[in-house]
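Listing 4. Sequential folding, example run.
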Amino acid sequence: MRAAAILLISAMAVTGFASAQTAPEQVTASQVSHYQMGIERGCKNKGRQRGDPVERVDALCACMIERMKASLSQAEWQQAFYFALTRRPEEEMQVVAPYLPTLQTCKSRYE
């Protein structure tokens, strides 16, 4: 499963949040948490749509989000959420792109 596709799906995770933030620093911990859950949910939905075994999809997606949580700083999570919220996927991807290679361990283990 491509990490870029998962992040694009994450845009759905931020729908319903008012775009009152004018800067990434204004993004709350709660919003970051919802964003992270949305990424994991998007990953699981994509895997299930492809017909992959549920257990494998759940394990892969859990591994991927845990790796991302361990890699990105709070400020980076805030930036990624903010760019998703303001519909700027290229900038969202620039924030997380340096960490995508760390997800290869998960893919190797579960795919």
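-- end of first protein; second protein begins --
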Amino acid sequence: MKREITARVLLTLIREQSFANATPSMVLTMSMVELAEMATASNIYLDGLGWLIGQFWEDKERQLPRDNQPLLDDKGRLWSREEMGDELTDEEYLVAEKIYHTAEFCSALYHHHPFDLSVLGEGGPTGSFEYANTSLIEWIQQAEHRRVAALVCRIVLDAEFDKALRDNQAVQDYYAENVYGTHSDNWQKIDDCEKFIKRAIEGMGVVAHHYEESRKWGLEGEAVHVNDMVYGWVPHVFEEEVVETAHEILEAANRLLPDELTLRHDSGARAYITNVFKEAEQIAEKHDVDLDVHDGYSLTIGYMETWLERKYWGDRRKEDEE
């Protein structure tokens, strides 16, 4: 089938638009972080990073090549040197490889997907995308290329948000309101990148400190979540009566939970939640903690209902949906 654009023409176009007209030799000597920084800074169609990725793929998974893409096979992978034949010289194929892998890296940044941290360079950070990875947080704070640093920081933030989504709705809401918020971050602007990095690292630090304080008060795992639910927000001061209330509500929720062999159904879930709420109200009253289980506008009650619903169904509801 006749191609609308040749591999050579496409490589030239990408070098001109994404990499400030860098020569082939310059592309080969630059790191992928440098190239990604340039692509992010480029203003083509107001979305330089998206434009570069769009020259290769039409999907986030990088499995669907764009129409008439001369460098990729039908699975979205770069043709081998042998398969490419004489369409490119050896040097041009090396440039194609470099740009292809840079586009893969840019796709991970653009869609906020974790990637192999070795891409960030020799002697760079290792490990996983989490705030506890001090080598990665230090790299983000000190990296020369601030646009890439901000995008890497966004991946870390999303990973921490996903943890909260599973484990602690109060923390999830803290991130949503104070870190994500209504901010519209423009990765092309260094100032926006710096503001985002500062906001994100400070926010993740607040949450990390909150969990440290929770452990000092003898709260671990679900107990942290229940304590935060009773307050309805994070961060917060810690009070002995609330901590005791949280421990006892968790004990009641575990005690009242039907065993694994019990058939789950919607009426059973409702009964379980009602029973836990009844005991939770009595526990809170005993410790002189404000908890109105009939307040439909209360964040605490909304958090608890969602938590108990998940606790009752476990993985069953997900399996039923599949």
